[in-house]
Every structure is written in C-alpha cells, then in structure tokens.
Amino acid sequence: MKSVIEEVELLAPGHRMCAGCGLAISTRLALNVAGINTIVVLPTGCLEVTTTQYPETSWRVPFIHVAFENAAAVASGIDVALEMMGRKGINVLAIGGDGGTFDIGFQALSGMFERGHRVTYICHDNEAYMNTGIQRSSATPYAAWTTTSPYGRYSIGKKKRKKPIGIIAVAHDIPYVATATIAYYEDYQRKVKKALSMDGPAFIHVLVPCPTGWRFPPDKTVEISRLAVETGVFVLWEVEGGRMENLKVTVKPKKRKPVEEYLMPQRRFSHLFKPERRQDVIDKIQRTIDEKCERYGL
Amino acid sequence: MKKEEYKLKKITIGAIISEPGSSIKYKTGSWRSYKPILTEFTPPCTRECPARIKVREYISLIKEKHFEEAYKLLKDKIPFPVTIGRVCHHPCEKKCYRGQFDEPIAINILKRFIADYALKNKKKPSKVEITKKEKIAIIGSGPAGLSAAYKLVKMGYSVTVFEALPVAGGIPRFGIPDYRLPKNVLETEIDDIKSLGVEIKLNTSITDIKHLRKQYEAVFIAVGVQKSRKLNVPGEELDGVICGLEFLKSLNLEKKVSLGKKVIVIGGGNVATDVARSALRLGAETFIVYRRSRKEMPAIKEGVEEAEREGVQIKYLASPKKILGTNKVSGIECVRMKLGEPDESGRKRPIPIEGSEFVIEADTIILAIGEYPDFSFLKGSVKTEKQRIVVDPKSLATDQPGVFAGGDVVTGPATVIEAIAQGTKAAVCIDRYLRGEPMKYGEEALPLIELEKMNLSMVETKSRIKSHSLPVKERMGNFKEVNLGFTEEEALEEAERCLSCGSCKLCKLCSIYCPDNAAKMGETEAEINLDYCKGCGICENECPCGVIIMELEVK
Amino acid sequence: MVKKVIEGQQAIATGVKLCRPKVIASYPITPSTHVPEMLSKFVANGELEAGFINVESEHSAISACIGAQATGVRTFTATASQGLALMHEVLYIAAGMRLPIVMSVANRALSAPINIWCDNNDSMAERDTGWLQFYCENAQEAIDLIIQAYKIAENKEVLLPAMVIIDAYNLTHTMEVVDVPSQEDVDKFQPPYKPVYAYLDPDRPITQGSFGTPEYYMEFKYSQQRAMENAKKVIDDVFEEFEKIFGRKYEKVECYKTSDAEIILLCLGSMSGTAKEAVDRLREKGIKVGLAKITVFRPFPEEVVEVTKNARVLAILDRNISLGYTGVLRTEVASAFVNLSKRPLIANFIVGLGGRDVTLEDFYEIVERKIPEFKKTKRLVEWINVKGGA
After folding, report:
1. A81 interfacial to chain C (CB closer than 8 Å)
2. What is the pTM of this model?
3. Where do the structural domains in chain C lie, given as residue ranges?
C-alpha cells in the first residue's frame, strides 16, 4: 500500500507543534487513512494545545477535546450517539498521548474496551509528559532521564521498565491491537485502516519520538523512530481477536542493531555514556531487548 | 463585520467552536532558522559515463512511460543509442549506487529498451540547414568520426566523412558480430546521420592530410585501430594463424571464413570473446587461452559468461610459448602461469611456471591480444608517439592547427562509448576553434551526489531484473541476436529500482514525513511551502535522493 | 395524566423517559442507583429508545454524556455525593462547552466518614460549575423539574447543563403519590432535541473544546454568565408554559405564608414540606412565621430578597456547611441583601447533616428558642441538634 497524503490535508498547517514533532507526522498519517468521515477525540496534551488555539484550529474533521483522562469515555458517548442517530460510516478516532492513555486515562480506556465501542484509539507514545515539560510517565523507558526521573548519585533515571500497554490492550480481548511507528508509515497506515474496519474497539500503540523531550536534533525524528525498530527497542506487531497466539510481527529488522545506536543520539540517555560509560546499564537494556525479541521471534 | 467582532459574536453564541483548518492563518515559517533547498547533483552513472549520458533522467522518463522523450534525450546526446544499448561496456553500472545496496540497475538494457522502442516507432530525421561557412572533413566513419559529424552537422556545418572501407561504421560495423549487434541496427543509426546532411565518402582513403586541410577548415582524424598485435612466438607465420580483427572483418563483410574443427583464440578482451563465440557459431570447438585469471579479463563480464555458457573453453593462466605445425598449424604449446605482483596496469603480473608446458591441438589460431593503428597514411604530418596521435587532452587538437584527432587513435583500443565521447568532444572543440574561442571541452557539471547524503532506509531490496536471451541451443550455426532485452513490464519494473541519485523522484517521502505539511509534490520535484516549514530538517535527513539541503537562513 | 404511587428515583426515571433522551451514561451509587436501574430496564424492554452506556465511573459517565451530547443527542446521567465529586472537573467542561446535559443528583453527604444519607454538601460544592440547579421538595417536583430542566437547558438563549436534585432517602426511597404526565403532553411540551451551534458532524467539521488563551478565556466565561442571566427569564417562561399544560405552578422561590410573616424560614429540598407543617402549627400558636423555599438555586433567584425583605428575621436552614464559615445558602442569600438598608436579621442554622432527621421539633426549637436568643447574640451560625454543641 502506498501512503496517501491527501491534497487537502485534514490536519492543516499552522499548528504549534515543535519543529520535527513526531506527533504531527503520526497524526497526518492516521488522518489521511481515516478520511473526512471521522470524528476525532483528544485528551489534553501536546497535540491538543498545539492544534486548537482559539479561534484557530488545525483540524478539518469534527474534533472534540474534553479533559485529560476521559478521551475514551467521550469517544464511547460519541459512538453510542452515532448509533442512536443511525449515522453509519463515521469513524470515531481517539488520539491520546502516553499520559492520557497509560496513566490517567487508563481506566476510561479499559472501560471503553470492555464495553466494545466501535472506536479506534491511537496512543501517541512519546514516553513522558511532554506538554507539562518532560515528566516521567509509566511509558518512560528504563534509565531514561526526565525532569521527574533525573539521574544523580542515587539514580540512573527512570527506575523501572515501561508498561506494556499493547499487551494489556490485547488482554481486553478486543478485535484489534497493533503497534506502529512513524518511520514505517506504510505499516502504520495499513494498521489504521484495519483498525477502523473493526466492528469494535481497536488500539494502536504508536511510538512517536519527541525531539524536545528526548533531546535529539529535530531532523532525526524519523531516524530515531526507525532505529527503535531496527534495534528491537520497539517491535511492530498486530494481534487480531485478542489472542496472543495470533500475534504477528509486521516489520522484521534485517539484522538487529545494538541498542546503543538507539540510545546514543538521545541526550535523555547521555548519562549512560558520560562522564563515565555505564556498561552495566547498557547491557541490562540490551538483555531486556534480547529477551523480548526472542519472545517475538526476532 | 470586522474580524474582532466576528470572533466575539462566535463567543457570545456560546460554544467554543473554531472554523475547520483555520490555523493556516498562522505562518509557522517565521520559526525557522534553516530552510530546505532542493538541489540537483550529478549521479554516479552519468559521472562515470564517458559521454555523460543523462542516465537518471531517461530512466525516470521510462518510469513515466515517456519512452519517446527518453529516446530523444539519448539521441540528443549521442547518435548511436540503439547501438550503444547493445555493445556498451556500461561503466555506469559499476558505479551505480544501487550496486552498493543490492544490485546495480540494468542501465544498459534499459537504454536498449528505449532505443528499440524508438527503432520501431521513429521517423527519419530531416536535413539540417547549413548555416556555417566552414567545411569539416572527418577521416574515419567509426563511432568517433560519426559522433563528431553528428554534432557538427547539427551545429550547421557542412561535414564530409571519408571512409577507406566499402561500408561505414568502423569497428561496430565490421568488428562486432551480429549476435551482439545486428547490422541493420547500426545502419539505421548511420542513415539518420546521413539524413541530417552528413556526406560519407566510402572506399576513399586519405593519404595527404595537409592537402585535405587546405580544402577543409578543420580535419578530424578518427581512423581507429586496424592492426592486430603479434605474439612474438615461434610458428606465428604458419598457415592457420590469423588476426582477430581480420577474422571478424571477413566474417562481417564477406561472410565466408573457414576455420576447421578446432580453434584457439589467444587473448582476454572483447575481441577475443567475440572471435571465440563467432568461431563456435561456425561449428568449431573453441578455446580461449588467457594468461591471467578471469578476474583480470578486460572483456565485458556478460561476454565472458555467455561465451562459457555457449561452450567456449577458457584456459586461464596459460600463455602460448610456441605455435606447432609444419606449414599448417597443428596446435599450440602453452605454459601455465601464476600471478605475481601488480604491474603498471594494476593487474597482477603473470609469471610462467617452469616445466608446466602443455599442448592443445588446433586447426586455426586466432590472435586477439590487442590492436594498434596504422599510421602510414599520416606520413608524419601530425605528431605521434607510442602508436598514438599526440593531442591536447582538453581539446583533442593535434600539433597542426585545425587538425584534431580522437577515438582509438588517441586513446588506444577502447570502447564504443569512449569513441562517441571523443567524437562529441572533438565536435565541440572544432566549433570553438572555428569560432576563435578557447578550445576546451567540459560541461558545467553539478557536483557528484554522495551516497551518504541519500537515506536508503526505506528502500526495499529488490533484485535486478534479468533480461531475456536466446536459448543456447538456438544460437549455434547462426548469428541471431542473443540478448533480447526487456519487455515493457520488465523495463518499468527495473526502472522503478533506480534510486534517482541526486534528483528528486517525487517519492513523496518528504511530504509524508513533514510534520507541517509543508512539502508537496510539484510537476518535476518536491516543493517546500516556506510559509509553514519550521526548518526541522527531517526532509533533508530522509530524502532518498539526497537533494534537500538545509541552509542557514539569513533574515 | 395518571396518578401513581412511586418513589423519588422512579419519578426521576419516569420523567427522563418521557423526555426521550438518546444516550444515558450512568454509574451506580447509593442512593441514586435505582435511576440507572430503571432506565436500563426501560431501554431493555423497549419503552425507551436510547443507548445505555454502563460506564466504569461517574467521571466517564459525564464524559460520555459530553461526547454524546456534542454529537447531537439528548443525554442523561444520574449520580450522588462522591460520584458527583468525582465528576467535578468535567462539570465545568460540560458547562463551558455549552452542552445542555440533564443530570439527577441524589443529595448525599460526602465522606469522611462515609455516609449514604441526605445533605446538600455534594451539590452545593458544584454551584460554581456553571450548571443550572433545581432542588425538589417531593417526587412530584422531581418528575416535573426533570421535564422542565430539559426545556430550560436546551433553550438557545441558555444552553447550559442542569442538575435536578432530590434528597437522599427522604425522596429517593420514599413512595409518594405522583401525577405522571402523559407522553403526549410531554411531547407537546418537549419537542425532539435539535442541537444548536455545536455538534460533531463530518459535514460541518468544527472544533469543540479549544484551547482558550488569556485573550479569549474571559469572554467565554462572560458568555456563560450571560446565559445564566438569560436563564432567569427562560425559567419563568417555561414554568408558565408548564403550568398551562400540566396545571402545576413552579416558582424559583416558593412562598408559603410569607406576606405577613415576621419570621421567614428559608430552606430547600424535602425539609420544606416539614417546614410548611411547622409554619402552620406555629401560626396556630400565634407566631407570624412563613417559609421561602428555594427551587432554583442556579441561576441565583434574586426574587428571594423581594419576598423576604419585610420580615424581621430571616432564618436560613442549611443542610450543608461550608466549613470554616456558615451554610452555603446563608452566604448566598445574605449577600443578596448587602446593598439594602432595610433588611431582616439573618440567622443561620445548620441542620440534618449526613441524614439526621430534620423534625417539626427542630423547627419549633429554632423559631421558639433559637431565634429569640439570636436576636440578642446575632450569632453567625448555629448547629441544631448536635451532640456536644453549644
């Protein structure tokens, strides 16, 4: 499938996202698959504040933002309202960040999954609370620096691994769960298309590098996204019908690169390399990835 | 209603609503400190091509199915696209960046595809009006001579080509067998040159350059090479020892050659493989004896492969020591070689192994160890050195004013495309000479694209498409063309593999990855909307063609 | 119209059903649970054509209502106490987005300690959220105010969400005789919902819930305030229209024997009924006492000044406490008199928190003992019937 970037862009330029923002790329990719017959629901976050500064908006599809933790609930209401109005063929697309999905919005998300609404929920995971200024979330990876997981004499950055949100979504027994990232746009767009075709909830966990929060130059956004896959840090897969045994890895790196290639360009990991190299930590991260990749048959 | 009032009205309506896409009013381009510039570079294929053929451009036209335009692009540059599509040694493919990724693009077969397409559909070109008063004489109707004639006639000169043989075309005409280059192909292209107004005088040997120079304002010597080198071993004078080029000439011009049952070809160049494969087609059991290994063989790789496939037996690392026989050749005694240190040509020097002599029986021995020009006709009128005419490498001018030389007489035995390049260069310099301008040739070339600038992360590996060829069993006893080229579908598929190094291929990646929807596809290349571009540089980093350069913006 | 013996929650559910909402999202909480139970049953047996969303929290209940209402349908939710408190932040948003959602609130005390019985602290805590608030005295008012709340909220001069509030147990679980309006009459009174201005429609892709910078935020709040002002007249008009069709008259502030009253009791909710009986008994004893009952608390009924200003004492009974100060009704009502030179003395009594009964004796105590004392002490606030209290 070739990527379709519409002439009339559903996310208009003039938005205030940072130069090189991964969210913007991801949103454009998803919207162009979803098309104009889509209602977008956003929780509070970077994407929301940068696209809807009154009286302007970047959205060319109907859009609603309510609060931080309730996008899935708002989407549930929209889904049922559309059903009651007899309006068919309209996609309900919720797009939340990792904070609004992994953390504060998790309950609403879980409820939305359980009730089986026909909603596609895309989680833009940039691995921290970026809108408030880079605070750790449950999506922040092990050893990453954030303003609330700083490194110091008694800290190596974030203490624990990130929450496996995709697997948790699969455990809800919903029709479709996938992971994606912007570099592999064809894979991503195919998954969005598939998700929207489901007669029930679908969840796509999208890794979106954040130049500001991950501390890398803005031209490297797509490259870092690609490196995440090439190193096995982020595995692209999909599961249909809520059955882990159906898990299919959709993009297999030809030869897995060492994780260092992913960590090195990001200054949120710079404390692993200087003032002294923390080989123990790098090894630990590599081991975790190796174990994970083994499970995924990579 | 004033803008402010309108906004307030919307607020007093109550709901917090905004008009779709209204953020376009906010021009984020003002954030930028670096801006992307679309820049074109020279691709390695063109850089490597002696004639600087715009390979990337014609492949791009193939992709768009604009075969006619692709042909025009080629024909504009060189008079022999159809010929070259068959016989070129395609150095472009060696440097093709795709080769470092998976396999090089089948540039030559693609070129042949469009040339063949044009051959079926093209019209005769019409005569070019003579607009310049100066007349030009060209000696030799090989690729160099005719390429010069082609360029010069198009500039409006009156051009006369003198050819000693009864046919025009030079080596491609008499030295390349039909199974590689069917003669009608070459003839069509020569006819085109004649249609433009070039006069070709056949059976006309020039013996007095000075006299000729008096009749013509400029003379271009492009007589090529005629003589085969000798082995300098005992028995070389025996009946049945013939020269490769002579053999090919007889085959191509007279069509009657008898070789006997067993033929040994000495040499490792294109003449050797052409001779061997021809001998095979005439029914002889054929050997090639070459003193180095396959890696050092100067012949085109495909030629060697096909020769082996067809049944030519190649004895590598063997050197003739003595030709055996009384009156008539009966065989050859060779000695085995081993490779030593590289010599001045960069290839490993072969060293004989004492006591390893062996004998191969033969009815005919054909020498194809190199050719050199016959300069007897020059009678010292221009300066020569080591069997080459001495020229100024920038202009191809000889030591005699108004006399130029090019092709094999200058370079030594070389390839068709090199000869074409020389002819083209000579034409440009002759024109400059006649116009009284400084004689130098050099196209304003854009810098070469660096492979590192091209992000090939999103390119998927895809093998080169194999062209069709005549089954081996159908090749014997005839000279039917072996390489059958691509079908349209195959050509399109192969063209699609081209990375378009250094030129936008409208792949849309910049537009797909632009966070600000600032990159759009224009007619021929991407266009960046600087109203919104924040200057992140993702497009530069991701561009698979390497054409986007971020420049510091001076505000 | 049919007379039925039903409990307060059933009155709410029946009123809601008559208004034909399309989406109901509700989470169970004592003592509001019968409302979603009954509504689910109506949906299940086809009496009500609506989507019922079994949300996983009150927060999601109101959020789902926002989503549905913004899409273009009439919605309903019901809650109480902690559930209402959990909705708190979203209540502001529903109002700010001008979505006329109707919600029933069973007035129940807030933790801690946990308590499931009646007081007003939960709804009083939401008075600033931008919702219309209607307080019911009985089950009849519950059904009638639900029907009227929709009409008021959806008026395009208003477009604000509305809470219809009934006391925990005293009303929610008490069987009363109720005149149930006919569907035909309600349909006449209440036409099908047509969203105004803002709704999610791909054919009209507007953005709702924008980011409001300092340049615009105040204007939005000002527009909400104007809507509240507009609501005052709209409420009167709707009450009048309702009376014409259904024969029952509603007022923002209902006056009971106040015209000659020297002492006017002021309260809201179910204790108003007890208060009326107390007024009758006390008048038998010759005390000129009356009652002003607040039905509409938001927008604030300024009429309360006009109807109480001639009394010598205005005794405000608050079934809530703004800890550290007085009852909420007192602060609100007292402030309404602030620029009048002639005004009654204003006494405040905190009663019935956490479901403690407010009895006739409590009223007698207030009128016969506490008010005479108060005339001397002018104490800001007095807690009635509290162990260890003063």
Report:
1. yes
2. 0.89
3. 2-246, 254-383
